[in-house]
Amino acid sequence: MTAKPNRRSFFQSAAACCVGAALPGALSSVASGSRPILRNGSPKFKFSLAAYSYRSLLKKKNAKDEKEAKLKLSDFIDDCAKMQLEGTELTSYYFPDPVTPEYLRALKQQCFRLGLDVSGTAVGNDFGHPPGEERDRQIHALKKWIDHAEILGAPVIRVFAGHVKKDIAPEMAHKLMVSGLEECCDYAGRHGVHLALENHGGPTSTATGLLGFVSDVQSPWFGVNLDTGNFHTEDIYGDLAKVAAHAINVQVKVVVSGPNRVKQPADFPRIAKILRNVNYRGYIVLEYEESEDPRTTCPPYIEQLRKAFA
Predict the structure, then answer these.
(1) Residue 3 CB neighbour total at 10 angstroms
(2) Dihedral of CA 222/310/229/144: which sign?
(3) Cα separation of 296 and 213, whole Å?
(4) N or C of the chain: less Cβ packing under 10 Å?
(5) What is d(CA 19, CA 37) in angstroms, rounded to the nearest whole number?
(6) Could you tell me which of 198, 109, 104 has the C-alpha nearest to residue 145?
(7) Helical H segments across the chain, by residue range
(8) SS3 190
(9) Quick check: 62 and 102 in contact, CB under 8 A?
(10) Which ranges of 244-293 would DSSP assign to H, the alpha helix?
(11) Distance of CA 105 to the CA centre of its chain
């Protein structure tokens, strides 16, 4: 049995990789993961809703009071069917603890009978931790959700890179995150599940940062979860366009905000044009994060998206 690397051996190995990457010609070969996704046919869009949109109504698995929840995931799925969506995104935060195979199969059956795909699921991992107990826990948790996704029939899991930890240089943190993503992509591929990295602050807060992971993570089961509301730059739509060709899942927010964080309505037709230009074929997932009641506010936004992407 191969011994699991400790903190020191990991950093030594990662440092060697850094040196190798700096050698002349080391960047001459383009990794398969860094190439845009080639898709046959014309652009095709299907629509889904993230359970995170109902976060004010659903019970988080670590909440102690069951009365906090006004709805169950099964109610959310019913609402997705009422909105005539093609899919439903079942965010991991709102599953009971523990998650049982029986519960997963029941949700899968409900979705099938309502004509819904489980378009994906989402986790809140952090691979910025150095080798040790917490890193092992993060990796184990994602692998467990890969198992859950396989039962649900979910083809993709939205994942994060993580946060740079104190006393760890950004370059080393990047290596840690890439290593964690590659290990989990290897596991995910054996279960027929993709991992989609979201532009979610920290090292992925810019198009350049996100593309660094696209270039470095070596797996055909890896891609981008393009969140249209998470670039807070001077050229939000330009940055979305830079990474759109690598998207395997798209989450659309109803607002965008630049460096000053002043919210403006998202330009759905412009987002649609960006995705058409890269021949995107897949799900457009509404992830509603504003304060109004999602049960009354999401349906009109779904219709706006359908019109913009028609």
Answers:
(1) 6
(2) negative
(3) 37
(4) N
(5) 29
(6) 104
(7) 7-22, 73-82, 101-113, 133-152, 170-189, 207-216, 236-243, 268-277, 294-309
(8) coil
(9) no
(10) 268-277
(11) 22
Burial of 196 (0-12, 13-18, 19+ CB in 10 A): buried
pLDDT in the model for residue 108: 99
CA distance 118 to 121: 8
pLDDT of residue 21: 38
Hey, what amino acid is at 223? G
Q: What value does the mean pLDDT take over residues 82-107?
A: 98
Length of the chain: 310
How many other β-carbons are positioned within 10 Å of the β-carbon of residue 290? 12
What does pTM read for this prediction?
0.89
| CB neighbourhood size of 278 (10 A) | 17
CA 166/CA 133 separation, integer angstroms: 17
What is the predicted pLDDT for the residue at 10?
52
Map residue 159 onto helix, strand or coil: strand
Are 114 and 49 a contacting pair, CB within 8 Å? no
In angstroms, the CA 53 to CA 11 distance is 39
Report all structural domains of the chain as residue ranges with CATH numbers, in order of start. 40-309 (3.20.20.150)
Q: Which residues contact 190 (CB under 8 A, 6 or more apart)?
A: none
Q: Are 263 and 210 in contact (CB under 8 A)?
A: no
* Average pLDDT taken over every residue of the chain: 91
pLDDT digits (tens, 9 = 90+) for 41-50: 999 999 999 9
